[in-house]
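My current task is to audit a protein record that another person submitted. Thanks in advance; the entry in question is below:
***
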Amino acid sequence: MGTVVAPLSSCSFVRSSLLVVLPVVLLSPSHIAEAQSRAYGSWCRLDSGCSFEHGFCRDRKKCDCVDNYTYNKTSRACVIASCNADTDCKGVGWVCKNYKCDCDDAYYLEDEQCTKKKVGLDHACAVASDCGLVNSIRSLQCLNARCSCELGFRPTANKTDCVPLVGLGGNCSVSAECGLFNSSRRLQCLHGRCICEHGFREIFNNTDCVPMVGLGKSCSLNEECKPTLSAKPTECWKGVCSCKPGLRATPSLDCGPSVIGGACSDDRECQFAPNSTICVNNTCACKTFFVPSKKRNDTCLQSAAMGVFCEESQQCDSSNSMCEKNICVCKKGYRLKKTECVKDTGQF
């Protein structure tokens, strides 16, 4: 019996359907394989394609265990590899211990690698990276093949940390607490204060110590010149450690007083009488309008006219005059004529 299909009438309607077209992402066979295969021995391109512990993508082809690990089928995991000799284990620091690859005693295992252990203060080292402190933010340096605190720091008594040094002038109890922040010069603790060691002197606002040199030695700063054996201070003058003005170096390398009429090599050595002495023909002499004192060999007195204040008779610049009661007057038997003392004949 056949099926009768009624024809559509001319006034019948067809309800349309709304179709939504979604984009289709097509995965390549390699992407599908990598998404499905993350186990040992599966194909890979990146290390992230091998999700098991101690695994990586070897040569961008196959998931494998990292060096010194081997795959255990029972546990389905990468475990430390077995060995018979150190040469069976690959990489720096790896050795064979109890038939298993392990880190040498001087190394520790970190991120599947043997990392060299850092040694503390005063231990042997080759480079600074060999050195380190536990529970401290301070860095160490390798100095003279020993781990040491960096410049400006000193080790604590138990050598577990480095603390800042006490600078010049700071309070201290032992010399080990003292040091300079930007210099390798050593300090000493004397009477509770950090000072330069013997033979050195502080400069630059107490930031460094410089070697001290004696008379006649080259210098660039006053602080470099040390006192004489008799504790006379010296200073750097024209690049040479010299006696202070008014003093002259002696054969015994001391500073002795210069005198009027004494030997000199420059005016500076004759400056024991300010503004009045100069070195003339290698002899200390008084300047113009000054005369040597007969009472003191280190004093020049200003020349004085008649009737003017004086201390000694040689100051009075007129012949046949003298200093009487601190005034320049003519000697007995002489009288003043204009500016000169002339013999008194009783006639005017």
User: Anything to note?
Assistant: The first strand starts at residue 55 and ends at 58. The first helix runs from residue 29 to 36. Residues 334 and 342 are 5 Å apart (CA to CA). The radius of gyration is 50 Å.
